[in-house]
Amino acid sequence: MSFPKIEGYVVTEKLGSGSYSTVYKAITKVGARSTVAIKCIDKSRVKHSGAAVDNLITEIRLLKTLTHPHIVNMKQFTWDDRYVNNDTA
Ligand SMILES: Nc1ncnc2c1ncn2[C@@H]1O[C@H](COP(=O)(O)OP(=O)(O)OP(=O)(O)O)[C@@H](O)[C@H]1O
């Protein structure tokens, strides 16, 4: 199985998948070598669904503001030609 190439990270395994995304375990290449979960949302799968795009924008907006011990903390949000990437720890 091949994993996506995400700048700054070594992707080590697949953790799970949802309707529009696949979540991978990854390690940062520089600094503390932190372990993170990266949710890769496949743009080709959401682009035909207005509701999916709205849900994605809502999820990212909420994750940016929420701080709670039982909710993953979004550290970074990036995108490339194929994926929108949510990096959580
Ligand atoms: N931070 C995380 N750490 C470990 N595993 C995770 C993490 N986030 C997601 N996963 C795994 O990836 C799966 C898919 O997560 P994702 O958030 O994409 O979809 P979902 O919300 O479960 O489903 P849907 O998008 O269909 O509503 C989860 O069911 C879980 O197994």
Automatic annotation (TrEMBL):
One of its GO terms (molecular function) is ATP binding. ATP binds at K39. Coiled coil: none annotated. GO terms for cellular component: autophagosome; cytosol; phagophore assembly site membrane. It comes from the Eukaryota. Residues 9-89 form the Protein kinase domain. Keywords: ATP-binding, Cytoplasm, Kinase, Nucleotide-binding, Serine/threonine-protein kinase, Transferase. It is an enzyme of class 2 (transferase). Transmembrane segments: none annotated. It catalyses: L-seryl-[protein] + ATP = O-phospho-L-seryl-[protein] + ADP + H(+); L-threonyl-[protein] + ATP = O-phospho-L-threonyl-[protein] + ADP + H(+). The keyword Lyase does not apply. Its EC number is 2.7.11.1. This is non-specific serine/threonine protein kinase.
